[in-house]
Amino acid sequence: RQGHWSRAVRPIVSFGTSAQPTKGEKMLRTIVASLARNNLRVSNQSVRAFAAEAPKNEDLPEFVDKATGLEQQELLAAMEGKVLFDWNPIQPAAFGTKESPLKIKSAYGVRYMSCQGNCKEGGTYPEAPMIWHTLKEGESYECPECGQVMELEMISEFSSLTAEIKE
């Protein structure tokens, strides 16, 4: 089967210096020739079919329509100019004491808080490291660094919801 090899393929896949191709060269030439024949063949099978019509630009949903749950509520509130979730740090009006603890609002029974530990009068050290606390419902927490007392206050709209979840 000496004439089996295509003249166009023979020079491309020539590894050895001998006149007779090795077994590996024969196999590689067969693969290359097969790929060349199959890729150059025009076929009716290459017609692409879609299950539905392509959507028109006016049919594409808006970002708010695709959002769900709290994300959608937050986006709708933002469109009305309201802020649903306040992500800013809590700036206490007064230093929390045992008699009058700093109230930290939460919709859940646990909230993680941070304190720089320099909350006493005149303590403004922005380079101080953050100290993280875990506030739990019904318990007050005193910061070991500055002595500020904090207490978790449940938000009334969510209190009934969290009570159902606990049961």
TrEMBL record:
Alphabetized, the UniProt keywords read:
Metal-binding, Zinc
Looking up Gene3D superfamilies in the UniProt record yields: Cytochrome c oxidase, subunit Vb (2.60.11.10)
Biological process (GO) annotations held by this record are: mitochondrial electron transport, cytochrome c to oxygen
The record, for InterPro entries, names:
Cyt_c_oxidase_su5b, Cyt_c_oxidase_su5b_sf
Q: Name one GO molecular function term.
A: metal ion binding
Q: Pfam families under this entry?
A: COX5B
A Gene Ontology CC term for this entry?
A: mitochondrial envelope
Q: What name has this protein been given in UniProt?
A: Rubredoxin-like domain-containing protein
